[in-house]
Amino acid sequence: MFQIDRSANRLRKLERTSFSEVGFREREHLQEWLATMPDALCEAMSEGEDGLLIIQKEFDGFDGTRERLDLLALDRSGQLVVIENKLDDSGRDVVWQALKYAAYCSSLKKIEIVGIFQQYLDRHGGGDATSTICEFLGEDTLDEVVLNDGTSQRVVFIAANFRREVTATVLWLREHQIDARCVKVVPYRFGEELFIDLQQVIPTPEAADYMIRMAEKDSEEKSAKGELRRSHQTRLAFWTEVLEAMNAAGLDRWQNITASRDHWLTSSIGVAGCSLVLIFVRDEVRVEFQLNRPSASENKWLFDQLIQERERYEQLVGGELEWRRIDEKKVSMVVCKAPAQGYSKENWPEMISWLVERYRKMDKVFSEPVRSLASRMRLGDGQVRSSHD
User: What is the CATH number of the domain that holds 267?
Assistant: First the structure.
């Protein structure tokens, strides 16, 4: 690396040094730098926009072993990223170590990943793991998000120098479509100032693009068998059967609605922003009466009127309901739900029957009262009031 001397119009070479020479340690320094500034690593890997979310450091939650991996992260696709840091030399066993950690992590379930991250947040400033992951992935909820599908953990090796046996192994792993990378981190000194340079050396940025294109070409035949993910195909098939059942039951509102790959279907009740929504996720089905008008105060007012007769409404529906005012959001809702093994098709007839029946009851119980309440509402001075006030 060189510094530009503008006044002399010359380059001044920065002195390459070593971490040991300047007194830096792996865990106290390099690991901490990357944990607090993962963007530095992302920039080195040309992933500045994608980013990484560090969810744990010194992770030792492996059954039957006391080994600890340096950093554990999530990428934007919900895959786990194992990051192994070394300082001046990669060592001979770093690949074997990291592959063990990747194998250990392959069995981590979504709830475990969220728990691991929550522990990390609790130790480092607080926060809610679920909402932070949702924000990072750009999702409203984790219900339908797949975290760590168990087949494509990523591995990143970081060191100032990589031994030949390490680079050869990493290249071999990449040939077998395992996303392993080497990032060189080199310290420099200029007077009293210290700098570090992070650069991905395997694969080089140009080679990375080429290898991605080749991997896409190799998987083209598999991708051609279906553009939708398995979950999308499952939802599409499920909603097709639900709509057939709704129409067979004479529920006319559903005649012009088509099946979707989303986890919900919506039916209006004739009041703007108020609807009955069917929800299908892996472990439950729901019917939600959603109050989602443009004005949050209108939604809260409608909700407050309905909940005054909570006991009567629950008796009419035939079961306990969840009353979600959700003060921090615009929407409010009343929810009827049932547990289900949703991705097992043998359960679908019972689930669909439940949805049809609960939808019919929720419609009968709530739609007319909400239409009546909405006709009385008016907005004035930022408050929702009845026209009879």
Answer: 3.30.1460
pLDDT by position in tens, the chain (length 389)? 888 888 899 898 888 888 888 888 888 888 888 988 888 888 888 765 568 999 998 888 776 667 788 899 999 888 999 999 888 887 778 888 888 888 888 888 999 999 999 999 999 888 899 999 998 888 888 888 889 886 677 899 999 888 888 888 888 888 887 889 899 988 888 888 888 888 888 887 555 454 445 455 555 544 444 444 678 888 999 999 999 999 999 998 898 899 988 899 999 998 999 999 999 998 999 999 999 999 999 999 999 999 999 999 999 998 889 999 999 999 999 999 999 998 899 999 999 999 999 999 999 999 999 999 988 875 443 345 443 33
Together in a domain, 16 and 79: yes
- Furthest C-alpha separation in the chain: 86
The total of structural domains in the chain comes to 2
pTM, whole model, 2 decimals? 0.54
Which residues constitute the domain of residue 355?
230-386
Q: Which of 203, 224, 245 is the last residue of a domain?
A: 224
Q: Are residues 340 and 321 in the same domain?
A: yes
Write out the DSSP string of 275-340: EEEEEEETTEEEEEEEE--S-HHHHHHHHHHHHTTHHHHHHHHTS--EEE--TTSS-EEEEEEEE-
Do 280 and 238 contact (CB within 8 A), yes or no? yes
